[in-house]
Write a structure and sequence with these properties.
The chain is mostly helical. It has one domain. Helix content is 72%, strand content 0%. The longest helix has 29 residues.
Length: 256
């Protein structure tokens, strides 16, 4: 176990540099060690999510749980490759083992709640701003399901202003918690310790990390533009780049 307070506190205080090109290069090296496994796993996660979406209620709950835990598999395999260990396709599903399942699920859930709540006012304000357009589109299509609402412009404006303000901490937390899952996978940290260690560490050089995240986002956006199929390649590639950043900044534990 590597989740003792002193170890995580030492990680949170580490100084480092953000080498975006180096992270991408190392991520590519990790990815190309098992490209079929990474892409196959990505395809499988999409298929599982698609199938569960057609199962009422239980399928929705199962989809949330599985989608929160499955991504840990990318890091488990990426770290095995980084250590020079052989990996099997079954390793992608080890996030469901007792060691990882609950902390990974809780970390993803809590981060999603934090970011989602902070983004909610902006989303509500945006929907209210375009509600009239949505209503007209529904009426033109012969669907009168959207009722007439008297929405004060001041309310919509206030929500948008508040939403824009709250987007700042939402973006901050979304970036700052990047290493939460890698810390759980590598250091066996509990979910809150992993989140806080990640936040404190990344905050030291948050803006360079923000730039790194933008680059990763653009790579995935390019994958989506390639008829969506390219995302099956770019998603695991960008996760491998994050694993490479973790390896460079924190360093992997010498697990067998």
């Amino acid at each position: 176990m590597y989740d003792d307070a002193n170890s995580l506190e030492a990680i949170a205080r580490k100084d480092y540099s953000v080498d975006i090109g180096g992270f991408l290069s190392r991520g590519w090296e990790i990815f190309t060690q098992n490209p079929l496994g990474f892409i196959g796993f990505c395809i499988l996660t999409v298929v599982i999510s698609f199938v569960l979406s057609y199962i009422p209620f239980i399928g929705t709950i199962a989809n949330i749980v599985i989608s929160y835990v499955l991504p840990a598999g990318y890091y488990i395999v990426a770290f095995k490759i980084s250590r020079g260990q052989l990996s099997e396709f079954g390793d992608f599903f080890k996030g469901f083992q007792n060691t990882y399942f609950l902390p990974v699920f809780l970390a993803t859930l809590v981060v999603s709640i934090f970011v989602g709540v902070l983004c909610l006012p902006f989303l509500v304000g945006a929907v209210l701003s375009f509600y009239g357009i949505f209503q007209q589109m529904a009426a033109q299509s012969g669907d009168p399901s959207l009722p007439d609402l008297s929405i004060p412009g001041a309310l919509t404006g206030a929500l948008l202003v508040l939403g824009l303000i709250l987007l700042i901490p939402a973006i901050y937390l979304g970036i700052a918690y990047t290493f939460s899952i890698p810390l759980i996978v590598d250091r066996k940290a509990d979910f809150w310790s992993a989140m806080e260690t990640s936040r404190k560490l990344i905050t030291r050089h948050w803006f360079p990390f923000f730039g790194f995240s933008i680059v990763l986002g653009l790579i995935n956006f390019a994958g989506v533009l390639a008829c969506g199929v390219g995302a099956l390649f770019t998603i695991p590639l960008t996760i491998c780049a994050i694993a490479a950043a973790y390896e460079n900044i924190i360093g992997l534990t010498p697990e067998s």
